[in-house]
Amino acid sequence: MRVIQSPGKYIQGPDALCSLNEYIQPLGSRWLILVDPAMKHHLPRFSTKSADNLHFHPELFRGQCSRQEIQRIAEHAESHRCDGIIGFGGGKVLDTAKAVAFHQRLRSVMLPTVASTDAPTSALSVIYTEEGEFEQYLFFPANPDMVIVDSTIIASAPVRLLVSGMGDALSTWFEAQACYESRSANMSGGQTTRAALTLARLCYDTLLQEGKKAKIAAEQKVTCRALERIIEANTYLSGIGFESSGLAAAHAIHNGLTQLADCHHFYHGEKVAFGTLTQLVLQNSSDAQINEVLDFCISVGLPVCLEQLGVTENVREKMRCVADKSCSEGETIFNMPFCITSENVYSALLIADQLGRQKLGLNCQKLDLAA
Fold this sequence. Notes:
Largest sheet: 6 strands, parallel
Structural class: alpha/beta
Strand content: 5-15%
Distance between the termini: 45 Å
Radius of gyration: 20 Å
Number of strands: 8
């Protein structure tokens, strides 16, 4: 059976948040808003308006999409007798909101403030421990009811977050290809549709064509067609592409990297970008393909070697741990269309690191964490 899934409605454009009340009114009147603390200055925009019969109950997110945080927010939603939950923030805020909506049987609206992951559109949450280590994927029977992306807010966010979103989106086409070749089930348990595969390819092509221009626009805090297209690629194309096609080695390697304290202050998409490069090595992609990905990553500021992810000491020992974790039972790396062992993943990690270092030159450049 072939399956494709998506949110009920996807809305994107400058100042889209101004029309929030109009969009959500048909879904319910009492809303809990889970807010990233960095966005709390926007809270006056969610004022209760009697004319619209809408009531908002804000709650600040505490930083981690963990079981404890999901339970805490669920209790708030129940005490306020909410009809729905609005996630207003980055990926972990949205994943927490989706989990609460599932457990409490609420309507869900995602308001991403960054284009750093494809979390807004998906029917899953990535659950972490309180310490920030990957724990599990939590799957839901339905996608969010609505995703509203205000590109003006995205343009004002830190540039590094937009670039991280490109890193996450970069894996979409390669993991979709792997799942299609291995006939692995997608995130909803079905086979990949041609539509999903086409969206995954469009995601990759859009990154190559628009990524550098979009980064410049974000640096200038302005919107443009290139930035709008990258927001769509990072959020919608990547979201539908991965969920309806599947995940493979790149995200499993990301999960392995979360075990290293060295990598904890790097974003999801930054680790996925290196995971993508490692997947290309693992599947013995052509030099031309690997160089295309390396050139893209360097052009927008994504990491291509382990030093850029903070791993500078005991590299071999740490990569053994990453490889073992990447090959944990049930991991998506086993969606690759060939036999996978911890040993060949370990080898691919070291080779990918050296390819990145050679591309950068002998002195490995470090990411600008202040960007």
